[in-house]
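Lecture 7, part B: from sequences to assemblies.

Below are the input chains for today's worked example.
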Amino acid sequence: MKRVIRMREMSDDQKGVIKKISAAGDMGRRVREMGLVPGTLIQIQGRAPLKDPVAVKIRDFILTLRNNEADHILVEVDGPDL
Amino acid sequence: MEKKFIIALSGNPNSGKTTVFNALTGARQHIANYPGVTVEKKTGRVAHRGFDIEVVDLPGTYSLTAYSLEEIVAREFLVNERPDLVVDIVDASNLDRNLYLAVQLRELGVPLVIALNMVDVAKARGIIVDHEKLSSMLGVPVVPMVARSGKGIRDLLDVVVEEAKRGAQWQPAPISYGRDIDRSLDEIEELIKESNVYDTKYPPRWRALKCLEGDPQIRELLERDPEQGAKIKHICENTAKHIMDTQEEEPEGIIADHRYGYITGVTKKAVKRKIELRLNLSDKIDKVLTSRILGPFIMVVILYGIYSFTFWVSEVPVAWLELFFGYLKMVVSSLLPQGVLQSLIVSGVIDGVGGVLGFVPLIMFMFFAIAILEDSGYMARIAYMMDRILRWFGLHGNSVMALIVSGGITGGCAVPGVMATRTLRDPKERIATLLVVPFMNCGAKLPVYAMLIAAFFPRDRARMMFFLTLLSWGFALFAAKFIRSTILRGQKTPFVMELPPYRAPTLQGLLIHSWERTWQYIKKAGTIILGFSIILWAMMTFPGLTKDAVRSFEHRRADLKNALLASPKMKNWVRDEKDLDLLDRLYDEYREGQGEKEALSPPNIAGSRLFPLIRAAFVLEKGGNSTDDMEEGPFKAASRYLDFRRQMVYIDREQHQTALKHTIAGRVGRSLERITRPLGFDYRTNIALVGGFAAKEVIISTLGTAYSLGEVNPEESGSLSERLKHDPDWDPLKGFTFIIFTMLYVPCFATVISIRKESSWGWAGFSITFNLIVAYLVALVFSQAGRWLVPGF
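Predicted structure of the full complex, as structure tokens:
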């Protein structure tokens, strides 16, 4: 089973494929030029001590985003629908 | 004759661009700013095969849009200066994202060479890049290299020379962005070619692409031809609408997706991946260094360690510089006759510039430490961990370093702190940070605190210091919050930031890094700071006392002398002024020798008939009594003589005090009394605060003069402390108010100059005004609330 969730909801070390970037403007541009485009495989690397920002492994590097920024990124992950 | 040409280095941050630049040019570098902006422009030279190559280091960017200063600067340079060749540094271990910039450079069409850097790191991670295939697919030469060890640098230069000889031309690469966008691109390209209004600096297809992406700069350029511009605008809007309707995306997003699609196509063929390693070393380190509990703890230890290391290693060279300037002052004082010129050179030039240059070792080591944090990749982790807290105050995770360097653990310096704000990319966050770092407790404020705490809170020294540290953090953070929600209001910029892999910094990189920043500071000290220091000196020197006033002090001295000479106790020892001069000279010399035994004293003292008197006076001054083996006679005279000396010193100090009150600074201080009275500050504290603009430790020496205590050494301010403690004008509340005011009011001018350097005169001026207002209001609240809460305080 596949389901689509927001990146914020992913747990540590979980993998997924980017489905859609719903951010426009500066934010949309910044995440895209860093390689967060639909079809890309990502894996959550961890979270900062205060649970925000989140670190994501993408392509061959690690990117950090704030939680409210990760909300704009929809990811397809394995798992049953909740 | 050597043939010359220009190459530009472009590349992502953390791609090793600076290492390539250093490896190419060595120490032959020149730093300036790009015209009109604070982005640094580094240039260097290298000679290869009879060619003189000028290398320009473009700012590190991920893209070529018009949304960040760095990207605009890089783009304008490429288009306007038309370098003969662009070398794009690409990190082989992170190929996809690094090629995103390369693809955009191909779109623009610049003559390009790709330097495929860090192939060793890539190999270690199981990534093997076939550089020949990459080259044929992208249509540009690709040179594999390891810049850290210098491997491949010569090959790169060979290819660069080869390409330059060939006279490579601008040639935009045709990349497809899907049917809809491609069709619009064709139409717009035709329209641009038809117009004769547009300049030919930009390739038409690239301009069409940027127009579809909504690039504000290019859209504005297209409006120069009203007729064609309107048609182009129409096409762009229609395309955007169509794409939004059919694919629920903006053209910009579709274009980015296609670029990455193109890159994936290239890397699928040119890159072989061995088994994917689940965690590389860098990831493993991160599991510890950014972990929930251990992470913050290690961060505090590292920051504190770096901080104390910096102050510890710079202590000795700073002391040497102080000694050197002290010696210089002595030599100049003895060479020049006493007067205005001597005072100008000693108190204006040497004290002013010396005070600033005295910081140089500190700044150098501080930058060295910061360079280690940056080059190793740890700085990005600090920002990552601190961001949640600092974001609330409108700052960025990276702001924490600047705050700590400025005195976050008490005893830093705001000058390197202001310079450390360069690591912040967003201009609003950067300016907010540099405006609040002067609130931290720098090393020069500490003596002022120590003196006042000793006078008014002697039992709570440690607790007070800790409390003041917390207060300064509080003021800095809330001031930042205030600034970010008023004059620098604005959306928080996306945090989207790379956590670069941990790397061991190269020594060459660290040295070049810290030296070039230090050198910029030294250059400032030699020019603007020298000027300011002379102005401040003049304010505290002119106008001097009137002739009448000076004469009245002379009269008082003469009266004292005559009274002494007329005293019967002195009759046997001193008969005229000549005798008195001799006594003064010998006694000073004897005191300096700390009252050596008769046999050890210089013959001119020991052999003098005045010797018994001198010795008696010394014993008395040290608080001793006459002993049996001494006669009574000299002691009576000595006591009278010491009395005379004390009164002479008192007159000197009174003259200094009167003179200071008479100067411009004194007048300013007095006229400010009207404003500062609610705080309980009189003209003497005001003069001291005016002097503190030069450097905060000057507050103590100026207060010393203002309270006619003569020279007060900031390190040994005990006498001033005692004096204030027993002064009816002072109480613990005024002491505390004065501490708070010192913490918050104007940054010292070395800091103001640094703020100007990192922003503008406008912000430097704002910083002075803003800090003064904050200091005044806070001090007012404290002093009024204190009086109200504890009426008898």
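Note for the exam: The interface with chain B takes residues 21, 24, 26-35, 37-38, 40, 45-46, 48-53, 55, 57, 59-66, 69 of chain A (CB under 8 Å). Keep this in mind when comparing with the next example.
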